[in-house]
Amino acid sequence: MRVQTQNNKNQKEEAASSREAEEKRRRRTSLSNRKVKMTADNEMEIKEAFQRAQKGHNNKAKLVASLKSRYNKLEDKTVFHEEFVHYLKYAMIVYKREPTVENVIEFVARFATSFQAPPKAEEEEQQQEDEEEEDEEVEEDHPFLSFIFNFLLESHKASSHAVRFRACQLINKLLGSMAENAQIDDDLFDHIHQAMLIRVTDKFPNVRIQAALAMTRLQQPKDPECPTINAYLLILDNDSNAEVRRAVLSCIAMSPQTLPKVLKRTRDIKENVRKLAYQVLAEKVHIKALTIAQRVILLQQGLHDSSEAVREVVCDSLLPAWLLRLEGNIIDLLHKLDVENCAQTALDTLKAIFKGKPSEELLQDRVQLDNRKLIPVDSLTCESVLYWRALCEFINAKGDEGDEILEQVLADAATYANYLHGYLRAVPVLSEEQRADFNHLELVMTKEFVSQQLIHLIGCLDTNEEGGRKRVLAVLQEMLALPQTPSSLVSLLTEKLLALISDDHKRIQTVAEIISDVREPIMEASQPVDEIKSRRQQVKLAEVKVRILEAKQTLEDCITAQEFSRAAELKDSITELENNRTQINQEMAEINQPADKEIRSEKNDPETLLRCLTMCAELLKQMTIKTRIGPTISALMSSLVLPSIANAHPAVRNMAVVCLGTCTLHSKELAKAHMVLLLQIAQLDEVRIRISALRAIIDLLLLFGFQLLSEAAATQTALSWQSPDRQEEDAPAVSEDKAEDTAQSILVMLSEFLDSEVSDLRTETAEGLAKLMYTGRISSAKMLSRLVLLWYNPVTEDDTRLRHCLGVFFQLYARESRLHQEVVEESFLPTVRTLMNAPATSPLAEVDINNVVELLVELTRPSALIKPSTNTEEVCVHDYLAVRMCGEMLKDPTAPEVRLYAKTLSNLELSRDDTVKKDLQSLLQQLVQVVKDRVCLQALEKMLNQLVDSREQAELLIASALQPLDVNADEAATEDPSKSAKRGNERCGVTGVFVCTGQRKVCAAKGGRKTSRRAESSEESDGENVPESVPQVRPSRRAKIAALEKTKLDLNTLINQEANVS
């Protein structure tokens, strides 16, 4: 009974479970049918939306509204989400910026952000915030928007760079399409933040660009530890791709932390980065947020940038933005620049401002002039006088067109001369006590600056009228001869004086007279009283008086005795004695009163000598080179210049050396006579004086050549100028011929200067050697090797002038002629040996040898010549270089530099000469047998394969120099490795020009600027949402249509194919 009951119970349970299973099966079937039906309906809706979204002419707002209406009617959104993502994936696997794909991405971003609430007014927003605070409820994000974000965050780690790129792009567009007051969940915010921080370090530049743009709204400028800001700063400093740096510049928020990095990008190697940096500063940074030094550097670099586009941005964007914030007050802008210490930069700034203004507006903005068209003396300030000078010079530069306008802003010559004379006479002369007072010193410095600007204005005066011209000359001569004139004005006064005198002989005469008046001024000297002579005259006067008394007594006696004839004689005698007495009194008066005489006394104090030497130096500079040395200049040399070289005062000696060096340029005989003296000064005196002497020596060698030394050596004994250590090293190389010995000694001296710890002396020497080599006065592979090593040496990293000078020199020198390329080729192996053998303690051990080799290879390319040889069968420099490297590898196949040489061989442009080809094949076959390194063997075998068909190799080299790089290099590499390798070879064949940024990079030149921008990184990158760079030449409309049809991508084929398969 118990068993039966149990069986009945089990049967009931099985029946119940069966009915429940059947019911579930029916519900599942019904749900499945409903799902299939809904999916089919939605598939058509979503599929149609994606198909229409591909076409740019469709209204995406209508598509979004239609699809959104369909979405809102659904109860179960999950299937819609899955189907929507399914079709989105078709677009996400395409890396190339196809128009159809871009349209789809734009549509997805609009549709996803359309679920957000529209932006509310401030009052509504404040009311909502109050309600939220009361209810303590937080509104959640829309499910579809959250789903899309989650899907993209899961996709950002995909192995395909296309998927990573599209995921970051969509996140960027989604965040950018949201309203300004939009809010997202904190967890979602953190997930997006973390994902984008990872993607900004992606291998592909396009991914990094989109990730950086996506984090625009995630940065917190007020937080010094903001991860986004720190990532941006790291990218600006270290990212090798210019477009990535531009993307960060376009979206980075300005703060005291980020401003220095943005300022640094104004010195970026890429033109479009510098341009954008100036645009960002103009739009986001107030002028008061910058220091005076930063403002000056920005203007100084921007107005003189090598790129015209950058200069236009500074003139059209930065300066107007600053003036707008200063209410258009140009004088106030000058106050912000500290014109006393950066007058030239201020002048360039004013001229840039004036260029964009019409003439009528220039007259309206003029400074406050009185009825004489002069600024009142009481109103003269550094800023107002500089503005006046810049305005007059700008108008004067227009020529005849500006003459009428100039008359309205500047007085006539005679009136201005009197005005200048009065101001210069009022400049105070400080005593020693006053010089210690900073206030007095600042006042005098300000007055001297104003005086300099007033003197510069002389160049704008109309001196065609004789009366005004003579008055200006008289004022200038008087101020030069006046001892109270500040020494800082002497050079400028002399320059303006000589500019008004056209004849060289009259110039010499005028300046010589002024120097004579300054050096030997006329002085009044009083003679002392002669006591002996005065005593004698007094005795003589006493005798005359006694004789007069005696004669008068005798006269009375004769009258009493009535001896009238005797009385008449005595009367005549008395008259004569009285005349004698009068004469003696006059002589005594002259003796007792000392006489003042005008005499000339020579002054030899340092200040006087410096003034005279400054005038003499300015005279010699203004003289034409063909003007020979006359008696007047010879007298100045013997009486002023040569004695001053031995003066104890350094400034006097320096100016004397400048005068001597300039004077020797006018006379070869004088140069031969004083060459030894200049060489001695270049070694023994102070640094500033040594540099002046070195400049003089370089100028003489440039003008007369080294044959000047041979002529000088015939009459003088060549001295040994090098140090004892160098004498021992170079003793075997010294020639018996004294001319060669002297030239060799000079080169050794210059070589020693290259090793000097004094940066100014080292830079001046390097610049001088570069000039001598470029003009052909020197042709030395060793010296060129020294200059290359100096350029790469980390010790010279902060010497901007040296790096810039040598960087320009290498380009010009190697491209000038084939002979110069041969010198570079000869310096190749010595340079590599020096770097390979550099000890670990040497700064040269830090130099990248591969980069140096790239430099030398690019400099010796036949295609780099300004005038390449038309003879294609001619043996080129790279042929000799290849033979040399093969010879070096055969000497020691196990040496570490063998791998470097083997790699370099494949980058050479070899000629099609059969003899050269056979020789290289023979050498390479020998190397393949002895070299054991696998990497070297692969490179050598590749080179052998390239030599099989010289004609095909030549065609490849020509194509590599003309064909732009493939922008989809990475995708093509995965499809066809051989094509990728071929493109790599082509990239090496582009004509090279080298730019210095720390370790130098090879970039394109001579018709290859577009190529160089893309060759900066190994992957293609774009600048979406980044301001455009320098505009390029637009192709024709027909060419664009043909290119568009050829590259057009249609996602419908993929979508339909997938639908058919399913």
Biggest sheet strand line-up: 1-2
> Based on CA inertia axes, which overall geometry fits?
elongated
Structural class by sheet pairing and helices: mainly alpha
Mean pLDDT: 78
Number of helices: 52
The percentage helix is: 55-70%
Structure description:
The chain has 52 helices and 4 strands. The chain has 1062 residues and is mostly helical. A two-stranded antiparallel sheet has the order 1-2. The protein has a two-stranded antiparallel ribbon with strand order 3-4. It is elongated and about 175 Å long. It starts with a helix and ends with a helix. 32% of the residues are buried. Belongs to the CND3 (condensin subunit 3) family. Residues 10-24 have a biased composition (Basic and acidic residues). InterPro entries: ARM-like, ARM-type_fold, CND3, Cnd3_C, UVR_dom.
Features of this protein?
Condensin complex subunit 3; two-stranded antiparallel ribbon; ARM-like; two-stranded antiparallel sheet; disordered N terminus; single chain; DNA condensation; 4 strands; 1062 residues; UVR_dom; mainly alpha
Record the SSE blueprint.
Blueprint: H1 2-53, H2 60-73, H3 78-92, H4 99-113, H5 122-135, H6 143-155, H7 161-177, H8 186-199, H9 205-214, H10 227-238, H11 242-251, H12 259-264, H13 271-284, H14 292-303, H15 308-325, H16 330-335, H17 343-355, H18 359-364, H19 382-396, H20 400-406, H21 413-425, H22 432-435, H23 438-456, H24 466-481, H25 490-499, H26 504-519, E1 522-526, H27 531-560, H28 564-592, E2 596-600, H29 606-622, H30 631-645, H31 650-664, H32 668-684, H33 687-704, H34 707-715, H35 724-730, H36 738-754, H37 759-774, H38 781-792, H39 800-816, H40 818-826, H41 828-836, H42 849-859, H43 877-891, H44 897-905, H45 914-930, H46 934-946, H47 950-962, H48 969-975, H49 977-988, E3 992-995, E4 1001-1004, H50 1009-1014, H51 1037-1047, H52 1052-1061
Antiparallel strand pairs: 1-2, 3-4
